[in-house]
Specification:
This protein is of the alpha/beta class. The protein contains 13 helices and nine strands. Strand 4 and strand 5 form a beta hairpin. The chain binds 2-acetamido-2-deoxy-beta-D-glucopyranose (2 copies). The site of one 2-acetamido-2-deoxy-beta-D-glucopyranose has 3 residues, from loops. It is found in: Golgi apparatus membrane.
Length: about 375
Amino acid sequence: MAGRRDGLLTRSNGSPSRGTQIAMAVGIGILLGCLCVFLYPDGLFRSFCTSPSDDQDSAAWWSQANSAKCETSERTNGLKSELASLSEKNKELKEQVMELTTKLKVAEQGKDQAQKSSLTLREQQKAGPFGTVKSLGTNPTVIPDESDNDSIGRTGGNHAVSGLKFRILREFLQLGYSILLLDVDIIYLQNPFDHLYRDSEIGSMSDGHSNMTAYGCDDVFDEPSMGWPRYAHTMWIWVYNSGFFYIRPTVASIDLLDRVADRMAREPNSWDQAGFNEELFYPSRPGYSGLHDSRRTMDFYLFMNSKVLFKTVRKDAQLRRLKPVIVHVNYHPEKFSRMKAVVDLYANGKQDALDPFPDGSWS
Ligand SMILES: *[C@@H]1O[C@H](CO)[C@@H](O)[C@H](O)[C@H]1NC(C)=O
Ligand SMILES: *[C@@H]1O[C@H](CO)[C@@H](O)[C@H](O)[C@H]1NC(C)=O
């Protein structure tokens, strides 16, 4: 903050810095001293406080003083005008100091706000005409911080362990890396890095199985007893799958992971995916400040969950020809056998590989 304040002082309207102000004040002091010496060669104290009634020769004093006055009257006038201009300058300086002090106060008051907003500060710009405006959508990437790169190894509390996944992720983000998090029940059929948009802070595969469930929809709530306003519109989306997501290193992302880790530590039996989604989607409300993460739902045919595959895709000749990037066997407990069947279908071309399996679980 000190550097910041200095910056403010020296940069505002080319006003003098504190050092320059001190030098000017000292200069004024010396000039005033010289002026006094000129005006009152016998010293200020004597000039003002000695009087004709003192024990020295009063007549001599008066004549001396008068002749000195005559001799130096021209000089005095010059110096007086100089003094006037100096005091004018002094006044200006004082005004500038006051102005700077006010600016400093305002800066101090805005410090907290500035600290917050500097995290997300971008060039301010005009909005532009209708139809041309596009928001950036993401917060800026953090500056890599390597000061805390191995603290996870030292934290050992049993409650903390349930949130450990998110705490480990956090450390990578803090170091400035983006992360693609993957569960182990995932089959890769293409390189996922070739299919990431990287435009949002969280890009996640969905637990949804259709456009409406995966990408969001207007679910109309009907209350006939209300009469004319019987329909209420609600926003609705199926949860993101916290077993496959891409997260960019921003302050908002770290905020998300910290919140989820904190929840998991406080409520060890809660489901991390529920916490992840609630933190990600609920807006700010009275008594709660929500997140500011931008989100992208991945294409649910490319980043496919096992419900989509077994309920829809395997029964549709056209969809079957699509090659997913990944298949996540998240919906089914018979993971290994279904994973092998998925490999048989997509990698080994065994068209009936999925046939033995029901849409849902065996029981
Ligand atoms: C991580 O921390 C250790 C110990 O604090 C240090 O020796 C190492 O250089 C650090 N690594 C990086 C990449 O900063
Ligand atoms: C689902 O959305 C995609 C693109 O978002 C669109 O191409 C497709 O037609 C939609 N399908 C249905 C059934 O609405």
